[in-house]
Fold this sequence. Notes:
Strand order of the largest sheet: 2-1-3-5-4
Largest sheet: 5 strands, mixed
CATH class of the largest domain: Alpha Beta
Helix content: 40-55%
Order of helices and strands: HHHHEHEHEHEE
Number of helices: 7
Structural class: alpha/beta
Mean pLDDT: 84
Distance between the termini: 87 Å
Radius of gyration: 26 Å
CATH topology of the largest domain: Rossmann fold
Number of strands: 5
CATH architecture of the largest domain: 3-Layer(aba) Sandwich
Amino acid sequence: xxxxxxxxxxxxxxxxxxxxxxxIWLVWYFGPDGPDLALRVTRDQVGPAVRQEDPFYxxxxxxxxxxxxxxxxxxxxxxxxxxxxxARYHLIPRRHILLRPEVPPSxxxxxxxxxxxxxxxxxxxxxxxxxGVQAAANSPAFRRIEVPGTGTxxxxxxxxxxxxxx
Length: 166
């Protein structure tokens, strides 16, 4: 018991020194973000700060203003990226159909016609665009909408979608 009483002050000093070093490291590491964080705290913008810095989220919020809530859109994306789920979440209640980037032109045009999709949304990934997307970009039934961000958006005129065969 007496041995513990002798070591207790040294143990407390060691813990306080480690805690102080941790505080110094945190100030050094997060120091450059301090003025921005203080500004966001004073303006009560702390929660959405991370989302506002994500270019994909900003692109989706712009799409939410362009695509009407009752519309259907086809989202071209690879399944592995996980961005499709985020897009579906932010663009609810719009009807969502997912197709892969390698979709053939006949299947893409048939899906657009059958599902009565009025928008074609393409998330630009690392891989090149497939033949269906290239055919859509060259078709008069598609009109590109300039939206700054990480992808491409086309407005589809279903009356101009003709028969297309591979």
